[in-house]
């Protein structure tokens, strides 16, 4: 659905799409570390950074800022695909995961806290911290090492009627595999219908569609710098039932409020730019007549284009061999995995991952080495690997860039 002409228009909307201000021309395949930024978000950020007024004052500027925030929240609710609950911004995606999990765990008593071994340390650390502080039973559902994901069946085997809080990783930033979120939540609620479910959507957000009506969760967190906005804030959606547990609030302040202090209007406004971009893209690839419909169409187009890119990287393009045809290459999660979302993680039996990343960078191809540390050890240690190369793409990348990567990879392995 993303034609070559449309791809050129898409690329024109992002800053530094084909060159680094410090390195020069380059292919950007490090999107899992932070996606490219919309030019509109850059402009919006500068605009609101210059405004001296605060919200909540009796003047036109303050009212305008409040209107911007209110409109951005409505747009974000559409993007999340839900018609209830509330959206708010915080320090970062990780901080928001800690906060939502803290509210859920401290707001319930006894029972089991449930997570999985595939999760990023943001959610696992928060669950582990409060389990130890409060003497709660924290259990981990094992992920499938071969597939690089955790299944609904695995959750179904682990969940018990006294499961009070569960966490789910929507997409792994190491394996690149997306979890079947609706199936997992259905498995949990079939046994523990009142369980509070918190989702780390940080890696998934740029790769397709977020549908919280289908997901049936209580909290969902994204980091906007990984979905075409800027650093410095996170965005969370929370259900009314999670809010009813009573998050920390100022004495005498408004009830059911998750926000502390003066909000950064620019944060809300730049996330509105993200929603507007999805809206625009959906109009380019469909005839949908509602914002949510266009967002859904954009998500489908993004997913389809990124599958074309990962298929080309794995299986080859033109006369270039794909990674699966290169001697000594092992692809995490397997080459034929329908859960893959715009990311290929691999290692070579002959060349160290760090050396591959360095050699690619010298040729102007930005990738990243994932080490078996506190971020990625849960994935790499069971595979017996100390490091792997992560190549992460987004829908603004092209098959020409994939071809460039494969050509350089062939040279690296030949050397």
UniProtKB/TrEMBL annotation:
Xref: SUPFAM superfamilies: PLP-dependent transferases (SSF53383)
UniProt keywords, alphabetically: Pyridoxal phosphate
Gene3D superfamilies reported in the protein's UniProt record: Aspartate Aminotransferase, domain 1, Type I PLP-dependent aspartate aminotransferase-like (Major domain)
Record domain Aminotransferase class V: where: 27-405
A Pfam family hit: Aminotran_5
The protein, known as: Nitrogen fixation protein NifS
